[in-house]
TrEMBL record:
Classification via Pfam families: Pyrophosphatase
GO CC annotation: cytoplasm
Entry's Gene Ontology molecular function annotations: inorganic diphosphate phosphatase activity; magnesium ion binding
Residues in coiled coil: none
Enzyme class: hydrolase
Catalytic activity: diphosphate + H2O = 2 phosphate + H(+)
Protein name: Inorganic pyrophosphatase
EC number: 3.6.1.1
GO terms of biological process kind: phosphate-containing compound metabolic process
Length: 161
């Protein structure tokens, strides 16, 4: 399954950008209150609706950061299931669809455990100092469960538009 991810936040940034889905403008939502930085490019899968009412979130493992608004053709290798103050807030872990350097990454088990731990740690602490925000632990699932959530998110989107 290949799909487009719209990058909102490049890897290494503390700035939390969001793309306004009505105007297409990139807006600075806030700077992260913690000293953490996004571990990979972060954005959303186009034309999806996740359980929190937003498009389905995605991290894209790239060798260099891109920029807000960049569209990357991706395939999913896993998903981090977590919740925040609004409820379910799953995060896909993706690689560029045509990148031969990432060809060995087919499922979550192919990603080094330390890298998965870094990503998990980021999502567990990145909202810690923000008033009214909270994150509850999560767990990694493989690409099959992630693809199922993508399909469900497409269906939710199509049912609401």
């Amino acid at each position: 399954m290949i799909f487009d991810v719209v990058v909102e936040i490049p890897a290494g940034s503390r700035n939390k950008y969001e793309i306004d889905h009505n105007t297409g403008e990139v807006r600075l939502d806030r700077m992260l209150f913690t000293a953490t930085r996004f571990p990979h490019d972060y954005g959303f899968v186009k034309n999806t609706l996740s359980l929190d009412g937003d498009p389905l979130d995605a991290l894209v493992m790239l060798d260099e950061p891109t920029f807000p608004g960049c569209v990357v053709s991706c395939r999913v290798i896993g998903m981090f299931r977590m919740t925040d103050e609004k409820g379910g807030d799953d995060k896909l872990l993706c690689v560029p669809a045509g990148d031969i350097r990432k060809a060995s990454l087919q499922d979550i088990d192919n990603v080094p455990s330390y890298e998965l731990d870094e990503i998990k740690h980021f999502f567990e602490v990145y909202k810690t100092l923000e008033p009214g925000k909270e994150v509850h632990g999560g767990a990694w699932v493989g690409h099959e469960a992630a693809e199922e959530e993508i399909k469900n998110s497409y269906n939710r989107y199509n049912g609401s538009h």
